[in-house]
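Residues and backbone
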Amino acid sequence: MRILRRTLQLHQGFPMKRFSAVAAFVDSSGILQQVQQWRDEDTAGGHPGGRPGSITDRQVLVLLLLLAFNGEPLHITRLTELLTARLTYNALTDLGLPGESDAALDAM
């Protein structure tokens, strides 16, 4: 039964309405500005070091909140499932992430 429930969850997408509401919540919450302020304070006059991130704070927060509002664990494997199997092309492009057609083009 647990495997069946997990399989159903994996193939259950998110309605665009829910995705849009979560994205709007993140954008209006002020958390992105707060995180940037903390990052600026931490690097105060220096360089943060390391390679620039390939995914933004906004993208991570939207994905984590989608999982949280759906009552799912906030695990990296669940984020991977969201990105590869559960989000629509429109949701991925709204996040600024490559959709299926972009990935197919990159593979050629």
